[in-house]
């Protein structure tokens, strides 16, 4: 009986201490905050363009700042303030967390769309033309030629054709690439004469009609027999036979010239 009487004060003390802990205001407020706190994201789905930023708001019951995390930061990153930055096309999940409670937002980054004013062009040598590109992000595209010997392109999309053949102009922006095919035609040349007979000392002008409207380059097979100037005027020098050539961008035609004596 005496032993039981001695134990009672200890039990009473323990119960009193527990009561103080359970009903003390600071304890109850902390316990309830931890139990009842949660986070809510108003936007659960966002679509963005590459390079765009967006602020994601996470609302908490306690007023505590939530933590943000992206499942694919290579697609879209997020900082401690909830600022999302779209980096490349794809999809990622932004987790917003506080006190063990989570909410989510799915971010879809759309690929950049590039629109060209032309998908193909057919031109002759020594032509200048603009290839115009519009991007959905408003970012500046980069132009490159697959064969700069056929056609070059500058940073503004200005194309200059150099010789007959085919070149691909590739336009890239935000890892999206589209292309335009440039075909440079080989010209056709018609001479006013296919054959000609001249006396020594005589001259005659030969006319070349070129489909490209570019000037031809004149030459002769034997400069002892005939000569030719830049306008196509042939001068008979000595008796004999020679060929007059007209050439433009890979096309070469000829006229046979016979020089006879007086």
CATH architectural type of the largest domain: Sandwich
Number of strands: 27
Strand order of the largest sheet: 2-9-8-5
Residue runs with pLDDT of under 50 for 5 or more positions: 1-34
How many structural domains in the coordinates?
Answer: 3
What is the helix/strand order?
HHEEEEEEEEEEEEEEEEEEEEEEEEEEE
Instruction: Give the C-level CATH assignment of the largest domain.
Output: Mainly Beta
Descriptive account of the structure:
With 262 residues, the protein is mainly beta. The protein folds into three domains: 39-109, Immunoglobulin-like; 114-184, Immunoglobulin-like, CATH 2.60.40.1080; 189-260, Immunoglobulin-like (Sandwich). Helices cover 13% and strands 50% of the residues. The chain has a four-stranded mixed sheet, with no helix packed on it. The protein has a four-stranded mixed sheet with strand order 11-18-17-14, with no helix packed on it. Strands 20-27-26-23 form a four-stranded mixed sheet, with no helix packed on it. A hairpin with a 4-residue loop joins strand 15 and strand 16. The longest helix has 22 residues, at 2-23. The radius of gyration is 42 Å and the shape is rod-shaped. The termini are far apart.
């Amino acid at each position: 009986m005496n032993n039981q009487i001695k134990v009672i004060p200890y039990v009473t003390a323990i119960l009193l201490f527990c009561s103080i802990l359970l009903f003390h205001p600071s304890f109850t407020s902390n316990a309830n905050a931890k139990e009842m706190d949660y986070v809510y994201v108003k936007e659960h789905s966002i679509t963005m363009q590459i390079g765009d930023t967006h602020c994601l708001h996470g609302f908490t019951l306690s007023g505590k700042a939530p933590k943000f995390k992206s499942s694919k930061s290579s697609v879209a990153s997020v900082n401690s303030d909830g600022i999302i930055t779209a980096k490349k096309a794809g999809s990622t999940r932004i987790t917003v967390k506080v006190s063990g409670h989570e909410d989510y937002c799915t971010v879809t980054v759309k690929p950049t769309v590039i629109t060209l004013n032309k998908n193909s062009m057919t031109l002759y040598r020594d032509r200048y033309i603009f290839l115009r590109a519009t991007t959905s992000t408003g970012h500046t595209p980069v132009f490159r030629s697959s064969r700069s010997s056929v056609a070059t392109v500058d940073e503004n999309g200005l194309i200059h054709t150099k010789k007959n053949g085919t070149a691909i102009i590739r336009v890239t922006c935000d890892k999206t690439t589209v292309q335009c095919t440039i075909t440079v035609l080989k010209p056709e040349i018609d001479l006013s004469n296919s054959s000609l007979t001249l006396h020594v000392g005589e001259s005659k002008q030969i006319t070349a009609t070129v489909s490209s409207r570019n000037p031809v380059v004149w030459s002769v097979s034997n400069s002892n027999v005939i000569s030719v100037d830049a306008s196509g005027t042939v001068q008979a020098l000595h008796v004999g036979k020679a060929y007059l050539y007209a050439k433009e961008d890979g096309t070469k035609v000829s006229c046979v010239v016979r020089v006879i004596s007086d």
